[in-house]
Design a protein that fits this description.
5-stranded antiparallel sheet, two-stranded antiparallel sheet, Phosphorylase Kinase, domain 1, 262 residues, alpha+beta
Length: 262
């Protein structure tokens, strides 16, 4: 469900009178915030009190855009509603090596730009892993035993990371990629950032995909990442997102799929 707060097209037009809108389409993805497709724009409402993070996100997107990264800018806001650019492309379905290479080039550039460039919050701090594990212990003890190593999980602090580059936060158009929804990013490990992306883009652990990603990424990244280090982090990032799916969504089906990467 991508809509928590409903709004009509006439109401949107009143909020943003400088624009003329014809269609308003609710989205289905997402479990926290409200997102509509509004002609050539994205309309969002953040269903949580994160004013500081929203302001940082707007500045972050401008910063990344200034370096040529294909991210959507926030172009207007009113009464808790935010109007973003709608970028061209489609979410990838059949992942091929060209997608892996394009993703690797984007992330290498993004990490180079964000290296030692920090946000206010650390990525992991927004998740109370100990509390989540305690909740999991009561509801899904089998998974708790498998995921309990997250109690001591920590990150290096390389700079700002997205931390959630799953396929539904990407669009591909020809040889370009767009990445969006940076709002829940924070300071963290670039290896973790890559690992999350490969959990999404290489769920069957194809060695050819992992090696192509690393070879492409390491050519221009702020520092080179070794294969064994990355594989360790893929396992931990899959565990982390399994925990989040289980505690926030009670989604055992999704957790079972991710368990292939533990």
């Amino acid at each position: 469900m991508g809509v928590k707060t409903t709004i009509a097209l006439k109401e949107v037009q009143k909020l943003f009178p400088s624009y003329t809108f014809k269609t308003l389409k609710p989205t289905k993805n997402g479990v926290i915030d409200t997102t509509y497709i509004l002609d050539d724009f994205i309309l969002k409402r953040y269903e949580r009190k994160i004013d500081t993070r929203i302001q940082e996100d707007k500045e972050r997107l401008l910063f990344l855009k200034s370096y040529g990264l294909n991210v959507p800018l926030c172009i207007a806001q009113n009464s808790g509603w935010f109007l973003y650019e709608k970028l061209a492309g489609e979410e990838p379905q059949n992942i091929q090596l060209k997608h892996i290479q394009t993703l690797a080039r984007f992330m290498a550039k993004m990490h180079r730009v964000n290296y030692k460039h920090y946000a206010t919050e650390d990525f992991l701090r927004q998740y109370d892993l100990n509390a989540s594990l305690s909740t999991l212990k009561k509801s899904f003890y089998f998974y708790y035993k498998k995921l309990s190593s997250l109690r001591t999980y920590t990150h290096e602090n390389d700079g700002f990371i997205h931390g959630d580059i799953f396929k539904d936060n990407t669009l591909f158009f020809k040889n370009k990629i767009a990445i969006f929804d940076f709002i829940d990013g924070g300071n963290g490990s670039f290896v973790f950032d890559i690992a999350v992306a490969l959990v999404a883009f290489n769920p069957h652990k194809r060695q050819s995909f992992t090696r192509v990603f690393l070879n492409t990424y390491n050519q221009t990244a702020p520092y080179k990442i070794a294969l064994d280090r990355l594989q360790e982090e893929i396992s931990m990032s899959a565990k982390l997102y399994s925990l989040l799916r289980l505690t926030s969504q009670k989604n055992t089906k999704r957790a079972k799929k991710l368990s292939n990467l533990w």
